[in-house]
Amino acid sequence: ARGSAAPQDLAGLEVVVSAGGTREYLDPVRFLGNRSSGLQGYALARAAASRGARVTLVSANVSLPDPAGVAVVRVETTEQLREAVVAATATADAVVMAAAPADFRPTSVSTAKIKKASDGSAPAIELVQNPDVLAEISHERAREGAVIVGFAAETGDDSGTVLELGRAKLARKGCDLLVVNDVSGGAVFGSADNEAVVLGADGAVVEVPHGSKSALAHVIWDEVVRRVVR
Ligand code: CTP
Ligand code: CA
């Protein structure tokens, strides 16, 4: 870890990081969720703070201690995450969307706890798409010169390799950098380590060797610093 020896190259910058996984409620006690641990987002927040940035961490359902010197905003749903990220993005120099917002939410949330039917039948759950926060902030560009970073966990399939899918997603989202994880092995969630390729809208391809989430976080901030317009 760079610790107190970290260069203060993010001093004067305001950055926003989202972390964790959203919950989409079915009723007051049940939700659809995902396996995001928040570890990568928290590593990004800690790394940015150690390099002198003013950090807002939008945290969705994470059980990790608050990083020192970071403003933490807690959210549960994708809609809440969207509100918090959009609000913080207005003045931000960089935004890193490390969170895993749910792609879908139940069409309606029951105000009362859903009960079992006596005939043994099960309810069908109808879903609608959630707003795409990364695409929204990338296309709106609240502050010119800000650097917007997305993450993508890909497995590769008939339609393309992990990198091809990453390139297409970067273009679709409209962000400046996309951190692509190959999750074919299924080993990233909750793991201390990570291995990734950082793709730039400017054509950059930065391969990050297998290492800690903190090491990947520092590489991401290196790429942000290189591009941000102060
Ligand atoms: N993301 C977002 N809002 C959503 C879904 C995703 O801001 N509703 C962000 C994630 O935080 C991540 C990036 O978009 O930084 C890519 O997420 P991913 O799930 O890979 O993208 P999707 O467009 O949802 O594509 P897919 O169909 O592959 O899940
Ligand atoms: Ca998704």
Automatic annotation (TrEMBL):
Entry EC no(s): 4.1.1.36, 6.3.2.5
Isomerase is among the record's keywords: no
Single annotated GO MF: phosphopantothenate--cysteine ligase activity
UniProt remark on cofactor binding: Binds 1 FMN per subunit.
Domain (DNA/pantothenate metabolism flavoprotein C-terminal): residue spans on this chain: 10-225
Residue numbers spanned by region Phosphopantothenate--cysteine ligase: 15-230
Reactions mediated catalytically: (R)-4'-phosphopantothenate + L-cysteine + CTP = N-[(R)-4-phosphopantothenoyl]-L-cysteine + CMP + diphosphate + H(+); N-[(R)-4-phosphopantothenoyl]-L-cysteine + H(+) = (R)-4'-phosphopantetheine + CO2
Obligatory cofactor(s): FMN; Mg(2+)
Domain of life: Bacteria
Residues involved in CTP binding: 103, 113, 131-134, 151, 169, 173
Pathway in which the depicted protein is active: Cofactor biosynthesis; coenzyme A biosynthesis; CoA from (R)-pantothenate: step 3/5; Cofactor biosynthesis; coenzyme A biosynthesis; CoA from (R)-pantothenate: step 2/5
Keywords of this entry: Decarboxylase, Flavoprotein, FMN, Ligase, Lyase, Magnesium, Metal-binding, Multifunctional enzyme
Job of this protein: Catalyzes two steps in the biosynthesis of coenzyme A. In the first step cysteine is conjugated to 4'-phosphopantothenate to form 4-phosphopantothenoylcysteine, in the latter compound is decarboxylated to form 4'-phosphopantotheine. Catalyzes two sequential steps in the biosynthesis of coenzyme A. In the first step cysteine is conjugated to 4'-phosphopantothenate to form 4-phosphopantothenoylcysteine. In the second step the latter compound is decarboxylated to form 4'-phosphopantotheine.
Family: In the C-terminal section; belongs to the PPC synthetase family.
Name listed for the protein in its UniProt record: Coenzyme A biosynthesis bifunctional protein CoaBC
Native organism: Nocardioides zeicaulis
Gene name as annotated: coaBC
Residues of the full protein shown: 178 to 407 of 407
